[in-house]
Amino acid sequence: MSPSFMAQEDEAFANLKDFGDVVIDGLIWALQQRDIDLKLTVLVLLQERYSDAKRAMPAVRALISGMEDRLVRVTAINTLQIMEEAEG
Q1: Do residues 12 and 40 lie in contact, with contact meaning Cβ atoms separated by under 8 Å?
Q2: Would you call 43 helix, strand, or coil by DSSP?
Q3: Counting beta carbons within 10 angstroms of the beta carbon of residue 42, is it exposed (0 to 12), middle (13 to 18) or buried (19 or more)?
Q4: Are the CB atoms for 83 and 57 separated by under 8 Å?
Q5: Which pTM value belongs to this model?
Q6: pLDDT digits 0-9 by tens, 13-47
Q7: Alpha helix ranges (H) inside the chain
Q8: How far apart are CA 21 and CA 18, in angstroms?
């Protein structure tokens, strides 16, 4: 990743931080959509920025089913592990 992209990501996160509940609701909504790329993006966000978002854990768990794309299932499993570690 380029330094400018990382700076943009940090700036976006700082701007969204004040809207925590709304952001988590949006992430949960995105995990329920059909778009695989959207789900993967949200899972990465949860891993990197919102690993303490306990409210999102049921939505992540729901992705670990035979009906989901394999990459989504594996990423969801990894995300849950990271979220459970952040939980303590």
Answers
A1: no
A2: helix
A3: buried
A4: yes
A5: 0.77
A6: 666 666 678 888 989 999 999 999 999 999 998 99
A7: 3-17, 20-31, 36-48, 57-61, 70-87
A8: 9
- The pair of structure tokens assigned to 22 is 């709304």
Distance, CA of 45 to CA of 88 (rounded, Å): 19
Position of tokens 């789900």? 39
At CB < 8 A and 24+ separation, what contacts does 26-29 make? 27/53, 27/56, 27/59, 28/55, 28/56, 28/59
Q: What is the largest CA-CA distance in the chain?
A: 38
Contact 47, 18 (CB under 8 A): no
